[in-house]
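[step 3/7] inverse_fold.run input=structure_tokens len=265
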């Protein structure tokens, strides 16, 4: 992949902070909002291809997500390489990590639903808010499981919260996809962190099964290969991703068949 958008400033990084051109987020990687341009930037050196590929996949599956562009930010004191997207913040709303809502509870779907009910208990439209947010969390979780995103912990899900309404933030982190070793978000506390065990448990719900299989049938290995062609990726990278996803796709197919047989019985 080549071709970066260049944004250049004739001031130092610290000066840009002082005059509020940018607002840093204080994360372990450099990330900040570019306020007047209404953009979000996050530093990324090794995972840009994964982020851009994940972005294309989410677009194809029609899942709410950030749309990334590879970018280099140049200041007189520092240069940043990474990704920019539209700033998805809403005026008079705050961003709340799921970690704050969960507290000390484990990262499980049942704990999330319980915690959402507690957090929004004073809202007049509580039921509508919780239903919308939880449905979106399920959709993002299904994408995590389909793509093998191992970076789906309590700090990776975020809410946009106002005085009388709230939403789930767009899916925004594809850097660790195509890893099928585990999942941080579990269906319940009885399960281990196995991606496949959690997927099988999740899909015992008929509605979730139907939603997931639609996503699964749409993103075939052949379609993934077609999507990859939209990026100028090295053949070795494309082959590794394709083979990894194909193996995963077959394993997931076995789970779907097994669940379907149980339903027939």
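[step 3/7] decode complete -> sequence:
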């Amino acid at each position: 992949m080549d071709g970066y958008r260049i944004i250049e400033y004739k001031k130092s990084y610290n000066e840009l902070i002082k005059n509020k051109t940018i607002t840093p987020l204080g994360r372990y990687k450099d990330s900040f909002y570019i306020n007047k341009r209404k953009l979000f930037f996050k530093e990324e050196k090794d995972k840009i291809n994964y982020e851009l590929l994940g972005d294309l996949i989410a677009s194809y599956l029609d899942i709410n997500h950030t749309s990334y562009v590879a970018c280099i930010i140049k200041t007189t004191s520092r240069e940043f390489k990474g990704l920019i997207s539209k700033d998805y913040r809403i005026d008079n709303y705050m961003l709340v990590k799921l970690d704050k809502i969960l507290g000390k509870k484990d990262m499980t779907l049942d704990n999330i639903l319980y915690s959402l009910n507690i957090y929004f208990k004073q809202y007049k439209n509580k039921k509508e808010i919780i239903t919308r947010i939880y449905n979106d969390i399920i959709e993002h979780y299904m994408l995590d499981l389909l793509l093998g995103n191992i970076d789906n912990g309590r700090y990776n899900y975020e809410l946009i919260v106002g005085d009388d309404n709230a939403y789930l933030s767009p899916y925004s982190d594809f850097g660790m996809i195509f890893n099928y070793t585990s999942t941080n978000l579990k269906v319940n506390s009885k399960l281990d962190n196995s991606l496949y065990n959690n997927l099988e448990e999740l899909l015992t719900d008929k509605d979730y099964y139907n939603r997931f299989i639609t996503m699964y049938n749409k993103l075939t290995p052949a379609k993934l290969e077609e999507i990859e062609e939209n990026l100028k990726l090295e053949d070795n990278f494309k082959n590794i991703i394709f083979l990894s996803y194909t193996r995963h796709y077959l394993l997931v197919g076995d789970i779907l068949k097994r669940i379907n047989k149980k339903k027939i019985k």
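[step 4/7] annotate
Residues 94-264 form a domain with the Phosphatidylinositol 3-kinase Catalytic Subunit; Chain A, Domain 5 fold (CATH 1.10.1070.20).
The chain has two domains: 5-86, 94-264.
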